[in-house]
Structures are given as C-alpha cells and as structure tokens.
Amino acid sequence: MESKKKLNAPRITATVDIEKVAAPTGNIYEAIIIISKRAAQIADELKAEINNKMKEFESVSEILEEVFENREQIELSRYYESLPKPHLMALQEWLDGEIYYRYAEAEAKNA
Prior knowledge:
about 55% helix, DNA binding, DNA-directed RNA polymerase activity, DNA-directed RNA polymerase
C-alpha cells in the first residue's frame, strides 16, 4: 500500500517558524491561503484514491444483514488513517519549496 504522497511530513502538529512560512510570499496570510488550497487538493486526491481502492471490496449483495469483515479492507483503512493529515503534507511541501503558485491578476495585466 505505497502511496505517492509525501510521507516525510510530521504526523503531529508542531510549532513552525512563521518567518519560514511567510518567506516565499513575504506575507503570512497569502502563504496560509496557498497552503490551505494545496491541503484541499491533497485531501481530494486521498479521498479519490481510497474510494477507488474501496470499490474492490464492494459486494453486490442487497441483504443489509450480511456484514463481512474483510481484513484487507481494515488494513487499508488503518493505513490511510495513519498518514499525515493533508494540511501537514501541504505545509511540508510549502517549506520544501514544492508548491507552485501564481497570481492571476498579474497574468491578466501582462496578457
């Protein structure tokens, strides 16, 4: 169950130097907005990934009383629960300089 997501992000929230976060943009609020948008993208990607993998475990039985405990499904769920949270992955990507951002207003003026 190897995910392509960055697993070097911390699994718990820790204090981060505000200067490092604000450095690329020069404005902490812009940096937070960029990080939050990336976190939403990561969350959507992870949700789609787990939904695709869970489709393999769907049963076509219409009887609601039948509940099957599937060991592989439980392990898959545990794996995704153990991943760092999307906002921590996005913050790590930001600090590592892996997030590309642009200003739409500046591009509109240049066009």
